[in-house]
Known about the structure:
Layout: H1 22-33, E1 44-47, E2 50-53, H2 61-73, H3 76-85, H4 109-127, E3 133-137, H5 144-153, E4 161-165, H6 170-177, E5 185-190, H7 197-212, E6 221-225, H8 228-234, E7 241-243, H9 260-266, H10 268-287, H11 294-308, E8 313-319, H12 326-338, E9 356-359, H13 370-375, E10 382-387, H14 395-414, H15 418-427, H16 432-442, E11 450-455, H17 460-481, H18 489-505, H19 527-536
Parallel strand pairs: 3-4, 3-5, 5-6, 6-7, 8-9, 8-10, 10-11
Antiparallel strand pairs: 1-2, 2-11
Amino acid sequence: MTSMPDVPALAADRAPPLTDLPEWAHFAAAARACTLQANGVPDLIEAPGVTVDFSGQRHSDALGQAGRALLEARGFDVQRARLLAGEAVNITEARPAWHTALRAPDAPPEVLAERARMDAWVRSADAERRWSNLVHIGIGGSDWGVRLAVSAFGYTGLWRQVRFVANIDGHAIEGGLAGLDPRDTLIVLASKSFTTAETLQNGERAREWLAAAGVDPRANFAAITAYPERAVAWGVPEGNIFRLWDWVGGRFSLWSAVSLTTALAVSTDVLAGMRAGAAAMDQHFAEAPVGANAPVRMALAGVVNRSVLGHGSLNIAPYDSRLAQLVPYIQQLDMESLGKSVDLDGRPVGVPTGPAVWGMPGTDAQHTFFQWLHQGSDGAPVDFILCRTADHHWPAHHRALLANCLAQREALMRGKTFEQARAECLREGLDPVRADWLARHRMHPGGRSNHLIVLPRLSPYTLGALLALYEHRVFVQGVIWGIDPFDQWGVEYGKILARGIVEALSPETPPGPDGGAARDRGAGHDASTRHWIEQLKG
């Protein structure tokens, strides 16, 4: 891995639809025929930085064999090699998705050079004690990963105050700047394209805020982008601009200079540790056989849960409050990548694809939605995540946290039969008639799918490995479904419509030819949208 790849021409051969494959039929039949391993021996994979227990997923020898056959039929080995080599796996945009290069020990020279330049810039700022306040302005992939890392490793306090501004809502930038000293505040603009409407509009307001305080905005701005010339034209000094390459998708960009704010907040050592953990997971993903490959096994389980069993969502339950921001991070990674319904040839996939991803840390989650997980008519697979060792000095708290995690998982798997619930009621002294009635309310169906993911402790290395685990799981599911997990065309349409509606909402915009609001680039709005443009205009 010593040079940037050329983007090859798209393959001319068409893969058959997933549902036409006999391997898919065999896989689905094997999944329906097996049951949860709730009473079995722990089914563990030891991967770098994490241990994954698969005993909460459906498994059998037949399903394992069918999974390997399905992966072979979908050309998984070839697709994995193309991803890791930096070939054009983002088919609809004809470019690589080479985020693994950003953390590889033998990263391309330009990646290493930019990393070293950013590290030196941060060290200089630290040595001079510049900027007590950081305002990170980005959205989506330019925001969630930085929030996660700062939250995970700065939870006990930071010498630099860090605020995040993503939303276009003016309250967001107002709150982000409120009470800060403009002379001691660095504004970090993170936008791959440097055309992101929310980021640039919030950046413009921050620039006005600095100028109003008599501060030269150029001295207090930094930017991360794939188009440095646009940042220069916008007004950021060239020496304060760090490069993000076009072959890195936004939701996979945590490993790049997008994490400048992370480095300033919790150190460049944190970033180095995260890259090391992710690189170790990359190697595991590249080399481990299917049956012992944690991302691949998670992907196969995810396909069973979504496409065979029909579960519409996936719950993320990190039993560590420092990982609260992991939920939206995985939510974007998964739903923006796998929220597709057509394959690479534009045909309907034919089975349900990417689930809705949601959650919050335990034990808060237990008092919010675990009732639905346990006894709701649908339920959802759960990824339980815990750290074996805590970094605080209250062992009783940690024992209670671990106990709650294991208990909730066991209850989801084992359930509680009517007979068990009735016996419980009788032991409490209820008469048989009331016991029969109440037992039906205390029953748990059980048999609900889950992973248990255990980190030795929360460190930069283990967090990096965990995030790479999910990245590769998403990629493998994309290969199986035959979709492109690296584009996001669904997001673009609304952005185009919004540009026209912003213009129509302006009080200076005259009515359109139909007497309603101005038209969106020649295309008429529907009647309801025209009504609300008129109501909200001004």
